[in-house]
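The material for today's practical consists of a large collection of protein records. Read left to right, the backbone structure tokens trace the chain's path through space. An example says more than a description, so a record of this kind follows:
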Amino acid sequence: MVFSKLLIQWYLQHKRDLPWRNTQNPYHIWLSEIMLQQTRVAQGMPYFYAFTEAFPTVFDLANASEEQVLKLWQGLGYYSRARNLHKTAQIVAFEMNGRFPENYIDLLQLKGVGEYTAAAIASFSYNEAVPVVDGNVFRVLARYFDIDTDIASADAKKSFQKLASELMPKESPAMFNQAIMEFGALQCVPKNPDCSVCVMNQSCAALQKGKVNLLPVKSKKAKAKNRFFHYLVAEDDLRNTVVIRRSGKGIWHGLYEFPVIETETEENMEFIAAKVLSENPFGNNVVSISEMNSKTIIHKLTHQHLHIKFWKVKVNDLLQNGIDYDTLKTFPFPIVIYNFIDNDFSE
């Protein structure tokens, strides 16, 4: 097949030297694949090194506390990945004697491991002939073969998996999977790819038809919801403060934050002050309330835009369960709160 031959030739010349490509260790490959979900390689690389240094084996990761894992994950986002990573490590370590399943079907049974991740581990660690299909693969195949199927549709993944499987050289599935993902990441990029230097430019259907920037077809995402968070940063006579752990199934489950008031719209200091005085989250000893960031911080998540304000709440006497600045920084926080603590809290 012309496509597969050109693809692998390109890959051998242009592939990046990434640490998880120099091993067949399923633990390292699993770590990297979980980290690279929704994450660019450049952003994920330092986390991969940090995790493999802190937790050299799946047993080390399994024996860590959830807070240790979340703290090390801090800033990578999509924190359910970290919680699932930890739970899966415990299953592999304590129920499977540290051995990962050795085939695609059994890998799918692990928490947090979907079709793409299972295919990646199965092919990279065990050379099983099962195709990976991610955003890069959708884009490369849709353009090369001029496929206008909506990749957000229910049937898209199956049809693209079938095509990728037919294209895959059965003697080198790992290389093919790595190659097609790398080609999409480096050459056949989402916007304005340089087709003039592309090894596929003589046979790419989308290029011949002038449709490169029209493919792949993907239905529009739902509009992001706006939420308004007002964080109450208490400070007592010792400059100690209070944080709480988020629970429930919403964003940032298991991470820490300051006590928060969520509102439907932007609110001014009068509203927040009245709310604090009426609800008494720190007792009846509030001395003053002041704005800490005059400009609202907008923190964009996949389906939510968070509008964040921090408010200093000075209190008399000492806070119950108060913690100092050095202790505060040891807790796992959403990165937007950690950055505030790191840059503004100590001033």
